[in-house]
Give the backbone structure.
Amino acid sequence: MLRYVLKRLASLVLSLAVASLIIFTLIEVAPGDPASFMLGINAQPETLAALRAELGLDVPKVQRYLNWVGGMLTGDFGTSYTYRTPVSEMVADRIAVSLPLALYALALSILIAFPAGIFAASRRGQAGDLGVMGATQLGVALPNFWFAMMLVLVFAIHLRWFPAGGFAGWDKGLIAGLTSLTLPAIALALPQAAILTRVMRSALLDVLGEDYMRTARAKGLSARQTLWRHGLRNAMIPVLTIIGLQFSFLFAGTIIIEQVFYLPGLGRLIFQSISARDLIVVESVVMLVVFAVILINFFVDLAYAAVDPRLRSRA
Amino acid sequence: MSLLEIDRLSLQIGNAPILKEVSLTVDPGEILAITGESGSGKSMTALAIMQLLPRGARSTGTIRLSATDLTALPEPELCALRGNEMGMIFQEPMTALNPVHTIGRQVAETIRLHDPTADAEAQARDILTRVGLRPDRFPLSRYPHELSGGQRQRVVIAMAIARHPKLLIADEPTTALDVTTQAQILALLKGLVQDFGMGLILITHDLAVVADIADRIAVMRHGEVVETGPTWHLLRTMQHPYTRMLFEASTHQVNLPAPPPPTPLLQVRNLHRSYRLPRTRLFSPPGQFDAVKGVSFTIMRGERLGLVGESGCGKSTLTRAILGLETPQKGQILLDDTPVGQDPGARRRMQVVFQDPFGSFNPRHRVARLITEPFHLLSAPPTGAARAQAIAEALTAVGLQPDDATRYIHEFSGGQRQRIAIARALIIKPELILFDEAVSALDVSVRAQILDLIADLCRTYGLTYLFVSHDLSVVRSVTDRVMVMQAGEIIEEGLTETVFTNPQHPYTTKLLEAAPKLPDLRMQHSGDGSI
């Protein structure tokens, strides 16, 4: 097991190093000089040079890469070209919204998908299964911003249970923070839950056909006991894979939902900094997202090994 | 009164009749063998007793276990009986155990389920010891993937007998195992029946397996019991023609033509192939598994050579190396003095027929395309009329119709598919064919037909082949010479009849002894004049 963890850790570090190189190179070759963008087309060459020096754009590329990576390792993400504030502060503010939102949505997605998938699989071909499958079809087909608008219409405007948008901030307390994230989390979770339900159902159906499920029935376990004791854990590998992918999406791919609910999240920050050629922010946020995704994959790998003993010994 | 009484059990799935008026009885301490070919309803009978039938199955008739009619019991009461009063063992030990739970947990589960107050772990340890897995060598914390097929089957047996059920059903319990392991598992089952006084239903397609240990045999065909009786009586009289056909097919001998004068075709010289094993510790050097260790032999033109050995002995690696699918670390494989592997022409001169007639064809292609696949090895493959001619010729040679070329593979039975596989191998007139367990997945009657076909092809085409199989009786009937392989080495080779009648190596002797044999009834028949 230790070998497995070490191997996954090594792969994590290597992935991060490669990712940082790729991100840096891509952003360097992207057209558009932040200094000339900030000063406009009529800027004097001397002013431009001075700004470039101030932003640290005049040193050789290798040096800039090392400075950037070294800075990130010590928590210094540099200073935003546009806002002149430390990137780390900007990012921290946004993560305080995006990370809880992603986790909240993911938890909802799992809470909906597990029971729904198990329910559908255990009633294969019956009315309950068809009903769940029909609902997931809709959930996959309808875009999340449509859910968002419907949720606002019903729960914010009509029933007034939740705010229609904006983020109260964590300093107002946990309840207030969670309340303002609830509608966006539901809107994000519904399509994800639909996907996860389908994966859960098909993984379980695969497992239900396995020989060891029949063995378990021959031991005297009821159909339900067989499903819970022998089916679920074996069905987890594909489900964990999808959960990992969903977290990555929920963490950084939520710009539309952030826009609908006026949430100051990471997605909006990326969008704004790309528009403003604020490369240092783009670089840092992208790197951070990559880090989060790789870290999640690392945890998913560990979860695989926890679920399946064959993976532990193969490593 | 019998332990189990099945009375006029009929079963339908959808509109398809599966069982027709099956009546059987089993007494305590008795071994009843149910035999028959695939689709005869053996396994469905077993599942009907366990009341684990597939959804949509409807049955009539009664199944009484200790006078309780199982067909009338509600599901919770059946759950209380399964694993407690009746246990079941399945064919495939590799998949019958849950891969994510330890063997101790799985055996203890049966015990705990039916007796929550029992010291399940201690009992699991006892029962595993009883089936030959001593806890000092096989701790309860082992996972199934850490055990061999035979050991896994012992765990499955332990689970089934943990509560000392009155009735044990074993569905092809040894079909997936090697002969020596098969002999051990059969001996174990027989011992358990004696110890516990259980009734055992042994389901198998292999008459030879049951001839030895069953008290009574029931022969099934198309969902009906065609004949039943005490083993010796049944084998001696064989009232039903189907029973006789099964028996004859199992002992089928083919008539091979005499081989031509020996000139070497394929020479294997000092072949080595090893695989790297994963490191056991972080900085220790990786281990090495020697699959093939210095194997040398020659196949003569027109010769039929057999290769036998148990799983893991290296016969598959050797076959793959000859086909050029594995690169050996050392040694040479020469086809007419040309090294195989470097010369693409050599591949054209060799073809292979695999074991699985279901998995070895692309289901989306028609037969014509499937059997002409080897044409890509030719520099100028035939086209148009010549291609159609070649297809028709190959299909006719294996006993199919030229019209079959336009059909899809799912329209054919297992035996027909294996004929198509042979047609695919024959179509470019190779000089050497490798049969890799080519008849192992077939029913005995179909197997006899395919073996006859191979003998016919020897007469017409003067085939040279290497016949790889774990089935000794088949190898004995279709080869001139045989090699016995153990742990990567050829430990004995010689003329087939000589090796089978007078084995020199102790391992060969062990293999031959372990192989189940049908009694030779011909002498008895003429002796008592019953036939």
Remarks:
- Chain B touches chain A at residues 50, 52, 75-76, 79-84, 87-88, 90, 92, 95-101, 109-110, 113-114, 143, 145-146, 156, 159-160, 278, 282 (CB under 8 Å).
- Chain B has 19 helices and 20 strands.
- The CA atoms of residues 14 and 512 of chain B lie 45 Å apart.
